[in-house]
Design goal:
GO terms for molecular function: acetate transmembrane transporter activity. It is a multi-pass membrane protein. InterPro entries: AceTr, Gpr1/Fun34/SatP-like. It is found in: Membrane. This protein has about 200 residues and is mainly alpha-helical. The protein has one domain. About 70% of the residues lie in helices and about 0% in strands. It is elongated.
Length: about 200
């Protein structure tokens, strides 16, 4: 088949949605992690709710759907899943009355975070085949989820704060990956390396 008659790659006409997905993930993770780290008081946590729904949730979910159109199973699974995470976080923390759980509420939240940690761990295995920048995000995110999960199970503010600080580093790594995607596309050359594998 000649070059003129080859079909274009699926979704080749679409911009790379990873920049949006990583940006939505990074900003929302950063704000919540600053709260978890205790840098700002817990009572300001509601500022995360709208952000979690709109940018971490809907925008990231949209990025995942565009990744499906581009034929990227990893990107689609990651962005749709973490978009759903942020929407579920918005619903769980802003619209769910957990008072009936009493002292067991921490066990429920711990289980929620542990399950996301397990999901992130197996996505980390797949991330080995993406880029160094994305792999770093997934390694850090896995650590963040497990620290926060065990912080809830053990009602340990120390583990939760540590998870918050690791979450901040995770957000910075995701911002870097998003920035590199935007900058490299805009300048039509490698401005910031992503260490493709």
């Amino acid at each position: 088949m000649s070059e003129l008659t080859k079909s274009p790659a699926p979704g080749s006409h679409l911009a790379d949605p990873a920049a949006l997905g990583l940006g939505g993930f990074a900003l929302t993770t950063f704000v919540l992690s600053v709260v978890n780290a205790g840098i700002v008081p817990d009572k300001v946590e509601p500022v995360v709710f709208g952000l979690a729904f709109a940018y971490g949730g809907i925008a990231q979910l949209a990025a995942g759907l565009w990744e499906f159109a581009k034929g990227n199973t990893f990107g689609a699974t990651a962005f749709c899943s973490y978009g759903a995470f942020w929407i579920s976080f918005w619903w769980l923390t802003g619209h769910t009355d957990l008072s009936g759980a009493g002292a067991d509420v921490n066990k429920g939240l711990g289980l929620y975070l542990l399950a996301w940690g397990i999901f992130t761990l197996y996505m980390t295995v797949a991330a080995v085949r993406t880029s160094g920048a994305v792999l770093v995000v997934f390694i850090l995110l896995t650590i963040t989820y497990f620290l926060l999960a065990f912080g809830e199970f053990g009602t340990s503010s120390g583990l939760t704060k540590t998870g918050g600080y690791v979450g901040i580093v995770t957000a910075i790594a995701a911002w870097y990956a998003s920035f590199a995607t935007v900058a490299n596309f805009t300048f039509k050359r490698t401005v910031l390396p992503t260490f493709p594998r």
